[in-house]
Amino acid sequence: xxxxxIGTPAELDAATDALTAVAYVVQLGDRHPLVxxxxxxWRVFLRLALTTAPAAGRxxxxxxxxxxxxxxxxxxxxxxxxxHAGCPKT
Length: 90
Hints:
Largest sheet: 4 strands, antiparallel
Radius of gyration: 17 Å
Number of helices: 2
Distance between the termini: 46 Å
Structural class: alpha+beta
Helix content: 25-40%
Order of helices and strands: EHEEEH
């Protein structure tokens, strides 16, 4: 199974941890920041092997190098961006 996950770093960590509990992670891609209205969110490619093996026999998911981060208030970030949209760039 292949999928793209999109969210904040904390959301991506939680989703990856949940998926690791039910499937074997074959590939965890690098995180890529999104821009525009999605600034503060990231996307990551995830390839899973769905098996019936017990969880104890699975190895943990690989960890990306930039796993840290805090939740971003997207509404506040968008309001700030709208507030400064007409400001000249220096």
